[in-house]
Amino acid sequence: MRVSLMALAVAASLLLALSWGLGSADETDLDGDMEGDLSSIRLSEKSSASRQVVNISRSTFGGGFTKITVLRNPSTGTAMKESYLRGGSIDREARMGVDKNGTVMEVSSSFDGMASLGVLKMSSPNGTSKYPPTFEARESYYGSFRIDERIDDYGSSISSERAVLGTGFVAVDKKVGDDQRTRESGTGSYRSEEVIDTYTGYIAKSVSLSHQPTSFRGGSDGSGNISLRWREGVISRVAGESYIGEAYSSIERLDKTTVARGTGAMETEAEFLGTARYRVVSAGEIDMDEVYMGDYALQRNVQLEKASRYEMPHLSVTKEGTLRYENAKTLADYIITIENDGDRILEPVIVKDLFPPGATFVSTDRQPTFTSDGAEWSFTHISPGDIWTIELVLDVTGFRGADLVNRVEACAGYGEDLACAANYSAIEINWLSWGSADGMALSKRGAVDGSDPNRVRYTLEVENLGDDTLVARATDQLPLGMRLISSSPPFAASEGGVVSWNLIDIGPGETRTIVYDVEALWSGRFVNLAEVEARSVDGTSLRPATARSVVDVEKFDGELSRPGWQPPDWGFGDPVGADLSAF
Q1: Which numeric CATH code is attached to 315-428?
Q2: CA distances from 492 to 26, 56, 501, 518 (A)
Q3: Residue 174: beta bridge partners?
Q4: For the stretch 127-148, what's the b/e string if a residue is b when 16 or more beta carbons lie within 10 angstroms of its beta carbon?
Q5: Where are the domains of the chain?
Q6: pTM above the 0.85 mark?
Q7: DSSP for residue 307
Q8: Tell me: the pLDDT tens digits for 383-431?
Q9: Euclidean distance between CA atoms 370 and 223, whole angstroms
């Protein structure tokens, strides 16, 4: 017989409820012995200081089994649940673990039956329903499916990767805070690949949906067919400011890829048979509402522009450090800040911190990858105006230098090019030490471009005369009437005529060259001074060095008038051929 929509609603509600309900299953702690029937098992783990892992490899069950797995982590306010019921068969591998920093669940399963997966991460470890969760996900499947999914919860953020293929009933609903949402539901053939990162607000999904009825087993109530056309959608919004969304309904066929980069950009390529609605709103500026009904193929790229400091791809990184003393240890607390102050989206972003000599890692608030000389972090993207931060704690108890130098560099892509930035933090530990007079040499020269009379090229050279690697910050105060055009390497900052560069790896005997072009707005003599402050990475400080250059720019067509009062031209210039020796 045919199952009513009410019966379907009850079944779907059961699937969603199982994401959080306790059910009736045996319980096994990760630090204890597994007991009970392995075809009906629940795994739960309390937070502990060291990561504990359970590997359940290639388990195969059959015949109406029920299987529930639960992970809870009070340290991060996260709960994860995976359940299977009324199953005909399952082939499953899983890896799970909990520690004080986070929770990880990796699942790879092929099954026939009903399944649900759920994730809830509160806004804080002790968060309440008063504040929206950082992440909430509910997935329900009924039919024959293959699921590969990884949930990685670390600190205050969470990331997920999912690939699902199968046929049957699907209902998926995921929320990132109160600002972003992705969902799909319907019956038929289903393929989905998805990546979500809550910290950067990144949602990338590719779905292929085709509508067809699917059978439904109702136990003693009989069985029948369910036929629901697909619904799918993604939204990104900032309450009271902006909204970007797309919704598909009554879908017979949908093949689409959508990438939402935070709340201000969404890119889509789609082919569909059904109804689609696209909405873009920016308070007081944009209000777009488009509806398509039928068979369409389209591409969309929406980006709500923000004012940028530089009209070019540009990345800035800063680092602040402080010392504290705890249990006979000296700890250095750092805050790394990465800002996209340019005019376009950069992706991906790789940040690398180079630890001071002798320092050891203690903790960080973002998932790191460790290298031989420090740690790395990756971000999906950074949009214009976005600012990402990393908190890092190092144990520097054994450091004996004058200045504790910690270096950081960041690079992000745009097309085939990279925008990179570097900086360092120097914390004075031994304030009685004196800077060395030797160890660094600085030179500067400037010349007018032979083909362009008002273009000046400056060359600044910093030479390491010592035996240790140096970090340096070079600064040039451009004279009034000069404007920066380009720089190699890219400048760290350029504001109010002051241009600065950060060099974090000048090797022994190496000379680093900075070349920058400026435009002279009027003719005359231009004098400017460059200064470089340097330190060795082992903590030895050097005295600042300065260098001066003088450039004369001849009169040229289209020059501006020099501001302020200027002495008049009295016509006392040297007469051609006159003998002025008497003067």
Answers
A1: 2.60.40.1530
A2: 59, 50, 5, 16
A3: 137, 182
A4: eeeeeebbbbbbbbbbbbbebb
A5: 5-228, 315-428, 440-553
A6: no
A7: -
A8: 999 999 999 999 999 887 778 999 999 999 999 999 999 999 999 876 5
A9: 54
